[in-house]
Write a structure and sequence with these properties.
The chain is of the alpha+beta class and 371 residues long. It has helices spanning 27-43, 87-100, 193-198, 201-218, 256-266, 272-279, 361-366, and strands at residues 3-8, 15-19, 51-57, 65-72, 80-81, 111-116, 122-131, 134-148, 160-164, 167-176, 178-184, 228-234, 240-244, 287-291, 294-305, 308-326. It folds into 2 domains: 3-148 and 319-354, Diaminopimelate Epimerase, Chain A, domain 1 (Roll), CATH 3.10.310; 150-300, Diaminopimelate Epimerase, Chain A, domain 1 (Roll), CATH 3.10.310.10. The chain contains 7 helices and 16 strands. Strands 1-2-3-4-6-7-8-16 form an 8-stranded mixed beta barrel. Helix 5 (256-266) packs across helix 6.
Amino acid sequence: MSGYFANAHGAPCPTLVLDGRGLPEETDELLERLAAIRADLGAGGAGHVLKNAIVRPSPHPLFDLDYRFVQSLPRSPSSFDLRGSCGHSILAAVEAAARSGMIPPLVAGARVRVNVLNNGDNVVCEVEEAADGGTRFTAHFLCTPTKPVRELLITGDPVTEVRVDRTVIPVSLVSMGNPYVFVPAGHLGVTSRQELFAAGDELFAQFGRIRLAVCEQQGWDASGAFPKIAAVLPEPGGALAVRAVSVPSWHPTLALTGAICLGTAVGIEGTVPWSLARAGGHRDGLVRLVTPGGELQVSASSVLTDTGPRLAWVSVAGKQVDYQGWAGLPAGRFNHPSGNTSASTSTPTSTSASASASASAKELACLSLSV
């Protein structure tokens, strides 16, 4: 295995999956190598691929793969963010690892256990259906041991107020899968799903200002991909309409980690998602999320203890990943031969690179990459 493309449905772009056994361990050297690989992608018409998944067989007896996510940032070819994770890229990594022979072939019922090195997440990718061109998964994000739900609140409070454009906006800062800022869409003047999904540059810029204000208030670096931000609106039957941002525009659906985090937040009393879901009639069970690109359902399991509820796991089903083949990277980008790549050497048809966003450094800091 060297480098392969796989695309999870609903992701903003495909993922480049790389064999970590042929890449440097030291961070500066790794990023230098990734910058060279990114130049190769651009020269080959795949400059729009901004997700990198580095995988290798895990030495840990409880895991099949060690996974590291690296987000390519748009402001320069050598700009990356190693914080956080990407759920869609985890599934893409499992797909490519199986196709290349790093792990056994995927069959219905198989479970691949992934150790996320970025943040310590434990993810089980369960195969629902495997076919020649791709695989449908259920992704299970595990808390081992179970985690007090209050510890998932970044500030310790279900709601935090932030001042933006001379207005105080209540937000919930929740971290499960990735850290998120959840905003009630009604406080942004949005009253319907149609209005939320049709909104353009003005609301997108408002998202950026809210995210920047949160980062300044919390003393966080706003120049990278995290925290992410999404607006939420109640739907009939307890569902939630949700819209998140990507770079350089809106996310086509919702990041898998965003769905995991939002499903978790619905179960934490007092948060913005909890309040909005209850306003729509939700009480317990599956959480239905409506996005611009379709619907998905999230299930979460918690246990009650003497000290309060503790989260055990959160799952999203029906996630399809398409295998797109060998990336065609120069052999010199890897430290040593990492397996026979002759089994799949056809380069997938590339779409044109995304138009680069014209923005100042401060504007770039307002943007949140979505995964």
